[in-house]
């Protein structure tokens, strides 16, 4: 029974939702909502009017819940289909019936740009954050994880995408400041231990007159909310004060 349950969790789902999106801002918002769902690995706008969203997810994605959220926050949304992604479907994607590459018109080449960026993403929250950053770029119509380790992001956009700027955003250092109630040296030591164990962290320091703030510097995407929650559970009251980009002097 456990083995069969595990297999179900590893299956991929393809969800198609028709959404009324009247402007680029609406499309960007819809993409952002979809990428925030647990397990989502690919989101693309389909159809002549880009009014259909195709979402690929690992395991079970709440398709009805996603459609309802889009209906509330974007516009009319109708759940068209939910189906299992077959391995053959993935291998044949981008191939025509004769076995060659699917022809793409010169016009499409001029209008659409594909950018692939390798990103170090060590957890699901990091992947979700990376997707959120990517879909926020103007003109993006498709975002997907690629590679065996899902460590590449493939972005397709209408017109020009600032690939270098996007890569730089994903690469930038973050500074996270968390106020923590630490009553003794042992508490401080425990808090520091928790912070340095967080993925992506390269520097941790106690700040403030009472040494009641932890300043964490991380490369790429640091799970600030998750770190604050861990400190709250294992040390004491913890409040996330700020998350900001580290500017190079």
Salient structural properties:
2 domains, HMA domain-containing protein, 11 strands, Alpha-Beta Plaits, disordered N terminus, 9 helices, metal ion binding, 249 residues, four-stranded antiparallel beta sheet, HMA_dom, alpha+beta
Explain what you see.
With 249 residues, this protein is an alpha+beta fold. It folds into 2 domains: 10-87 and 111-170, Alpha-Beta Plaits (2-Layer Sandwich), CATH 3.30.70; 172-245, 2-Layer Sandwich (Alpha-Beta Plaits). 35% of the residues lie in helices and 33% in strands. It has 9 helices and 11 strands. The protein has helices at residues 2-10, 24-35, 63-73, 87-92, 106-111, 124-135, 163-171, 185-196, 224-234; strands at 12-19, 40-46, 52-58, 77-84, 112-118, 140-146, 152-158, 173-180, 201-207, 213-219, 238-245. The strands form 2 sheets. It has a 7-stranded antiparallel beta sheet with strand order 4-1-3-2-6-7-5. The N and C termini lie far apart (57 Å). The model is unreliable at 1-10 and 94-110 (pLDDT under 50).
């Amino acid at each position: 029974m456990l083995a069969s349950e595990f297999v179900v969790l590893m299956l991929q789902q393809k969800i198609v939702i028709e959404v009324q999106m009247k402007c680029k801002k609406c499309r960007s918002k819809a993409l952002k909502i979809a990428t925030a769902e647990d397990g989502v690995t690919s989101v693309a706008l389909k159809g002549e009017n880009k009014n259909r969203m195709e979402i690929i997810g690992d395991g079970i994605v709440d398709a009805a819940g996603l459609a309802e959220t889009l209906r509330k926050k974007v516009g009319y949304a109708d759940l068209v289909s939910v189906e299992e992604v077959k391995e053959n479907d993935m291998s044949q994607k981008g191939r025509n019936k004769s076995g060659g590459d699917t022809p793409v018109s010169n016009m499409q080449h001029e209008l659409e740009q594909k950018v692939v960026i390798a990103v170090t993403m060590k957890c699901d929250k990091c992947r979700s954050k990376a997707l959120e950053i990517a879909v926020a770029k103007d003109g993006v119509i498709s975002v997907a994880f690629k590679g065996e380790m899902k460590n590449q992001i493939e972005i397709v956009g209408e017109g020009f995408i600032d690939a270098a700027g996007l890569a730089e955003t994903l690469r930038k250092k973050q500074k996270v400041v968390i106020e923590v109630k630490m009553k003794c040296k042992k508490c401080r030591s425990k808090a520091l231990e928790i912070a340095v164990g967080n993925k992506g962290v390269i520097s941790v320091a106690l700040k403030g007159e009472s040494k009641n703030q932890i300043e964490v510097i991380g490369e790429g995407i640091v799970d600030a909310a998750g770190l604050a929650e861990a400190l709250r559970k294992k040390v004491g009251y913890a409040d996330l004060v700020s998350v900001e980009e580290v500017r190079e002097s």
